[in-house]
Fold:
Amino acid sequence: MKAESAKNIDEYIADFPDDVREKLEQLRATIHAAAPEATEAIKYGIPTFVLNGNLVHFGGYKGHIGFYPAPVGIEAFIKETAQYREGKGTLQFAIDKPLPLDLVTRIVKYRVEKNLAKGKKAGK
Structure:
């Protein structure tokens, strides 16, 4: 996919079919609402939100949307994330089901709190 060489999140999302693009935009808007002070970047070839370090990443795939809040973001919501967990720091949301946007909001807010507590310089 061309999305892997995207320079920004708009370019990344534009490369997907309508159904995936819609989910990616929903996820992006939800993350923005939960972390309005975070900035956008492309890191590791996928959309990333940055606030005192990497906050969360997400990406589109053939059958799912990947959401990467780091292991700490998953462990804090262990029971709620169990049905989506695919790896230590990875959640997978099926394309054909609604995104768990309330859960995403709570995870992002938790990650904001943790990242701000780290005391790093913004944007690094």
Q: What stands out?
A: The chain has a mean pLDDT of 91. The CA atoms of residues 5 and 61 lie 15 Å apart. The domain at 2-118 is CATH 3.90.1150.200 (Aspartate Aminotransferase, domain 1).
